[in-house]
Amino acid sequence: MVGGGEGAFIGAVHRMAAALDGDYELVCGAFSSDAGRNERSAAALGLAPARAYSTLDVLLAAEAALPESQRMQVLAIVTPNHLHAPAAIAALDAGFHVMSEKPMALDLAEALAIEAAVIRSGKLYGLAFTYSGYPLIEEARVRVARGDLGPIRLVQVEYSQGWLSLPVDRDGQKQAEWRTDPARAGLGGCLGDIGTHAFQLAEHVSGLAVEQLSADLTTHVPGRRLDDDVAALLRFAGGARGVLRASQIAAGDENGLRLRVHGEKGGLDWSQMEPNTLTLRWLDRPAEIVRAGGPGLDALTTARLRTPAGHPEGYIEAFANLYRSFGRAVRVGAAIPPARGAADWFPNIVDGLRTMTFVETMIANSVGDTKWSSLAETLDQRRASLAK
C-alpha cells in the first residue's frame, strides 16, 4: 500500500475490504512521507520494520528484488489524487498489479499514460468505483441488460453531500484541504471526487455510453478554487437522455447517491443509503420491492451477497466485492480484466478513461460556448495532442 497512514480514512477502508475474504495479506507499505507517521502506521498494522519503506520508489525496488514467492503482487494506491498516476505507472512498469483509488489521475493526459503502462506491462489495473460492487446494483444492471425495462429512455443519477457547505478547506480539515486544491485534486473538485462515481454508475447500470453532454459547474463557497456543485444533461448512445447532479454543498445531505433508470415498460430506483432495496415500477402492474438475499435474484447478484436476507450489507462489503474479483483475476494470471457482465468483473482502465474523459469534457463545455460537447471528440483530441 502507498498512502493510507494513520488518520487517513480511505486507506483503512481498502485494508478492511481486502481482508474481508482472506484473499490478501498486507506485506509492505509506504504509508506516509512523514517518517514517524510511516513507522507508526506500519507498526500499528503489524508489519516488519524492514518492509515499511520510506518512499514508493524504495518499496518497488526492494520488493522487486525479493524472491517471487515473497514479494508483493498488488499495490493499493490510496494517496491524494496527484500521486495516483505516477504511483500506478511506476508500479505497473516494475511488474506489479495495481488497485487504485479514483479518480485515476489529475487529467486525461495522465490517464492515457496509465493506459500505456497497462498495455506495455500486461498487468491488471483496477479502480475503486465502490458502488458498482453493491449486489443490487448488479441486479439492476442485469435487469436492464436482459430487457426487463424495455428500451432505455431516461437515466437520472444524483450524488448529494453537504460536508463542504462551509469553507472547512481553509480551517485545517485535511480531507477538504487537498480535495479543493487543484494541484492535488486535479481538474475537478466535486466533479472528480463524486461526479465520477455518478457517471460511472449511470453507464455501468444502463449499459449505454454517454455520447454528448451539456455542463454547468459552480463554485458556491467564496475563495474555493474548484467546483463544489455540478450538473449535466446527457445524451446516450441509442437516443436515451439523462441528467447528472453532484453536489458537496447540499447542506444537511450525507451521502445521497441515487440512480433511476427508465425504459419503455418501467423503471428502477436504487439509493446508496438504502442499498439492500431495489424498487421496480411498471406501467401495467404494481411496483415491486426487490431485497438483497430475497427470492428472484440473478445468480450474478447472489454471488455478491455475503449474508442471509435481513442482515444489512453495505459499503465495506461492496468494496470487498471489487477486491475479491480483482484478486481472482490475479490468481488465474489474467492478462486483461473480465468483461462487464462476467462473474468477476471489476472497474478497470476502461472505466478510468471514460470517467476522466467525462471530467475533461464537462470542464471544457462549462467554460466554452458550445451547447453540446462530444466525449469521443475530447478523447480523440487528447490522444492526437499527445501523439505530436
UniProtKB/TrEMBL annotation:
Residues covered by the GFO/IDH/MocA-like oxidoreductase domain: 138-268
Residue ranges of domain Gfo/Idh/MocA-like oxidoreductase N-terminal in the record: 7-127
UniProt xrefs under Gene3D superfamilies: Dihydrodipicolinate Reductase, domain 2, NAD(P)-binding Rossmann-like Domain
Pfam families xref list: GFO_IDH_MocA, GFO_IDH_MocA_C3
GO molecular function, one term: nucleotide binding
Designated name of the protein: Oxidoreductase
